[in-house]
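Shipment paperwork, digital attachment
Item: protein structure file
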Amino acid sequence: MQEDFYRIRRLPPYVFEQVNRLKAEARAQGADIVDLGMGNPDLPTPQHINAKLVETVGKPRTNRYSASRGIAGLRRAQAAYYERRFGVKLDPETQVIATLGSKEGFANMAQAITAPGDVILAPNPTYPIHAFGFLIAGGTIRQIPVQPGEEQLRAVVRAVHHSVPKPIAWVLNYPSNPTAQVADLDFYREAVRLAKKHDLILLSDLAYAEIYFDDIEPPPSILQVEGAMDVAVEFTSLSKTYSMPGWRIGFAVGNERLIAALTRVKSYLDYGAFTPIQVAATAALNGPQECVEEARAIYQRRRDVLVQAFANAGWEVPPPPATMFAWAPLPEAFRDMGSLAFSKLLLQEAEVAVSPGVGFGEEGEGFVRIALVENEQRIRQAARNIRRFFRKAGVQVPEGVAGQGGA
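Attachment content:
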């Protein structure tokens, strides 16, 4: 039998698995690893959401097959969320579909729209599914800058003029995972204009819409732009907003033709999430939203502690304006070794896990992604461990430790 199948040959070794393996080995030997690697929220799911799940699971009919595109009440709740949050009106019957998290939705949209050899424009660095979903489907990725601005817009125009065949779709992800950059409506207007001019599909990943800091304007939806509904689909998730990562509930909304294509593909592949989960997700969207504000405040405090404590340890980390991640350049003394080797060394010598930037694309080299998924005490512990490691390695660190954020 052939050793590697076609789609498997298109997938490189998973960079993060190397760090994950070392992390598991260290824990098996009793190490207390402060895990700031995977973006896996540690906050509890709000109680009113759990209560609705428990209430619904006791009803005999809810253990049957569910609806692949999402139960009607859940789709209506997502449409209501878009109207109150973004001022965007959606038809829950034709412009909203529930997915098994935004990652599954993105991957199946790639299956729905991609023919072998199709060219897709994707940012680099970016969350892996934005590129590999299309590679698995037989497409080809042309990389563009992640920064939302003129450089990216010019890169799209160049790609349209010089790619053979011409690109069919353009991936956007703001607030960005991993870089935490935020786009504004002016950028989205230009994106929509270019997409219409060059017949491009816009695929917007808005999974971190509700995690933003420092009184910045709430991140917008591309669908707020006039005419965006003609060319765009947007993906969202309840995973980070309501601390529901394992529940696997997300959405795709927007252009009716694209939503219909995704619906058709999913109808062959799944029956949707367990009905009680969908009912509880409906309660999340329709219920009190103070829990979202509380989670946002917790992530901001963690971010502030991390930035200050790591600075006291000798590692300057730029404060992210959004998401639950910091995108940190490698400390100067370790820049030549690369992000994967540094991540392994940090795990072995400081018992702190981070994600190597190269795992998000070659343009992520020289950075690591640090997730705000441990409490403030554990973040300070990570900083103390890093400070000791730096001193042992001969790196000059600030003298003394001051303030609540101290390492």
